[in-house]
From TrEMBL:
Residues 11-288 form the Tyrosine-protein phosphatase domain. Its EC number is 3.1.3.48. One of its GO terms (cellular component) is endomembrane system. Coiled coil: none annotated. Residues 368-383 have a biased composition (Low complexity). Keywords: Hydrolase, Membrane, Phosphoprotein, Protein phosphatase, Transmembrane, Transmembrane helix. This is protein-tyrosine-phosphatase. SMART domains: PTPc (SM00194), PTPc_motif (SM00404). It comes from Loxostege sticticalis (Beet webworm moth). The chain crosses the membrane at residues 436-457.
Amino acid sequence: MNDGKMTNNTVEAEYMDIANKNAWPLVYQKIGRECQAYPFTCVEAKKPQNKPLNRYRDVNPYDHSRVILKRCERDYINANLVKMERAQRKYILTQGPLAFTVSHFWLMVWEQNSRAILMLNKIIEKNEIKCHWYWPQGVGEQHKMTLVDVKLTVEQISEEDCSYYSTRVFRIFDMESSESREVIQFHYTTWPDFGVPSSPVAFLEFLKKVRSSGALDPEAGPPVVHCSAGIGRSGTFCLVDSCLVIIEKEGLESVNIQEILLEMRKDRMGLIQTPDQLRFSYQAIIEGTKRLDPDWKEESQMEESVYSSVHEEAEEEAPPPPPPRAESLTRAPARPLPAIPTSTSLGNMAYPASQEESSDEGPPSPPARESSTPSTASSPASSADDEDDEPPAVPTESGDRNELRRRHTRELAERVSAMKRRARDAENWHALKRSLYKPLTITFGVLLAGIIVYSYVKH
């Protein structure tokens, strides 16, 4: 690791050195330890009246950089203004809105004069609600949202499907001032929770599209960037964008990726949630730097030695679900990392090969808008620990790992099937008993009545 300035070749050499030693968790853990010394507080986030407004109880905005709402009963929202002065960049990083914070979210977009919303998650991932559906359910005035408490309306005026991401244009109207403004949403739909995109090339194309809209320009208001917690995927996007801007402005020798990440973490805790996301950031920065070269050609865009180890994992089985986010900001996990790593700010010594796979759910249909209480699945202040997982074995060979993972998945499927069969058998037996109970009762009643009548007549 280098503490001074690094040329692009040095960045790539550093990447290869870390990869060859399988040391991404060690690097990630080192960054986490340095962040533990930060003196920043989260007093507002922990106030009783604000706690329900946090999606996860351990992902809170720092007091010194939190976004303050002006025209609202409460000025609190789980969001931070993250600045990178060297890149002339400002970003608002926030959690995915809860059902009862949708109006706060749009008020923030309006008051901060944001030109774009960058949504890096799906609404539902791994059968869990990660974000409330916060935009209109269709195009046109008939689907317009009216947010009475903050005196805003939101209307969707267009939508475009761009394969692995979508763009939507909204018109926000302020009922107090009668002013209106258009905001574009870039919705990246193939970036898995706790994971990374399948390709740095696709990610860089997405970044290029966002930049071309002018949403990241210094004269525009800061873009609102969110995933579910607003730290993992959101932090990855901002780190890559800032590093590439600095390289373009100051030259190849000017960037130290880890130092820039540490600087950004001073404004919002836990940016970059896994060692995999840190590794992907290096890959995207290396690839993006090559594309800045005037002599760069598409056909020579990627060196297999740098990227081949990332995508070749089998994708037919899902990895174990991520363990709880709750303890991840304060200490390293006590057991080996699963296929999708756990820690929000530390790492782990036993780090298996990466997994790139998207949630297999399609885009959900927009739900009916809720006005007060969210569903249980999207309840606030959870710690993302709704799914149980068993610690996987950590063999030494990649093939053994894949085989163990497949075997574990098959065994789990067999156990689930056996449980379903037992449940069906039990239900069938109870149905049979219910079907026999009524005629037997009637027969017994008739016999009893006959015996009573016979006894009465005989006597």
